[in-house]
From TrEMBL:
Keywords, ordered alphabetically: Cell membrane, Cobalamin biosynthesis, Membrane, Transmembrane, Transmembrane helix
Localization per Swiss-Prot or TrEMBL: Cell membrane
Subcellular location, principal: membrane
Gene name as annotated: cbiB
Native species: Alkalimarinus alittae
Stated name of the protein: Cobalamin biosynthesis protein CobD
Length: 314
């Protein structure tokens, strides 16, 4: 049972040493396949049904291949562990997320708003051209908290539950949601299945992430914000994560933001400034990264304890 802990640790070491794969990343190839599937099916009537079929066509064959490889390597311990760790490494984005955050916080600390706006535009979907210093810090802090769940903890969770096939299904589903999950005329019906499947897969790990942020930050405030604000957010999974994260950091997030030239009034997250909440600044981004890293250490500790416990029982 300790294999799971060792594999997760190896994957994080790979990510720490190698960072995000810059060339020939498998998800780029998968994205090209997904585009062709969407172009072939996203037309005419019954778009919701076609979207469901598209999700199956995109995910099932690739997952089947990984199931076969996984079963063939089960009896070769070292190869199995290296293969599993490499797949998990490709599915997580720990160092990439931290580096993106630093690329925003550093110029922001130097009052270089132009560079900070350019850097934050790479990880958020809101309009960034005219963001103030506070808005940039808010957007980046929110992104670190939310993507910590999507890019790291959910992938680790599904690996722990279902091994390599689990993490493959999760990462492919998450990629399809990022490509097809828009609520615009083109994808509102066709992308419905991809968005709902991703929501389902994130349901448990998102709440475990929110709980982790709470334990390693301002616990009382994080749990309070999660309880009062987490269920009013536009995303059922991002809400608890970001509300708990904002409370854990004692920073005021959420509120109005502009997307595609349209102002959206979003739920406030975290403590209000009038109640002692901190206004987001460059240091808030760094603190969010530190919170994420502490939560990751907590997950490693829990995985190690559970692995040892199951090993003793079995």
């Amino acid at each position: 049972m300790m294999d799971t802990f060792v594999i997760v640790l190896l994957a994080l070491i790979f990510d720490r040493m190698l960072g995000e794969a810059k060339r020939f990343h498998p998800l780029v190839g998968f994205g090209n396949i997904a585009n062709r599937i969407e172009q072939g099916l996203n037309n005419g009537a019954h778009k919701k049904l076609k979207g469901l079929i598209a999700v199956f066509i995109a995910i099932a064959p690739i997952t089947f291949v990984f199931v076969l490889i996984d079963s063939l390597l089960q009896d070769v311990s070292v190869l199995y562990m290296l293969f599993s760790a490499f797949v998990l490494y490709l599915a997580i984005g720990w160092q990439s997320l931290i580096q993106h955050a630093l690329n925003i916080s550093q110029p922001l600390q130097q009052k270089n708003l132009a560079q900070a706006r350019k850097a934050v535009s790479l990880i958020v979907s809101r309009d960034t051209e005219h963001l103030s210093e506070t808005d940039i810090a808010k957007a980046a802090t929110e992104s670190v908290l939310e993507n910590g769940s999507d890019a790291i903890f959910s992938a680790i969770f599904w690996f722990c539950v279902l091994g390599v096939p689990g993490v493959v299904i999760y990462r492919l589903s998450n990629t399809l949601d990022a490509m097809w999950g828009y609520k615009n005329e083109r994808f509102i019906a066709f992308g419905w299945a991809a968005a709902r499947f991703d929501d389902l897969l994130n349901l448990i790990p998102a709440r475990l992430t929110a709980l982790s942020y709470s334990f390693v930050g301002n616990t009382r405030l994080a749990l309070k914000c999660w309880r009062q604000q987490g269920f009013s957010w536009k995303s059922p999974n991002a809400g608890p994560v970001m509300a708990a994260g904002a409370g854990a950091l004692n920073v005021s997030l959420g509120g109005a933001a502009q997307y595609h030239n349209e102002l959206q009034i979003r739920q406030a997250l975290g403590p209000d400034v009038d109640m002692g909440g901190e206004i987001p600044v460059a240091e808030s981004i760094n603190k969010a990264c530190e919170l994420l890293n502490r939560a990751l250490l907590l997950w490693l500790l829990v995985i190690a304890i559970v692995s040892v416990g199951l090993g003793l029982l079995l």
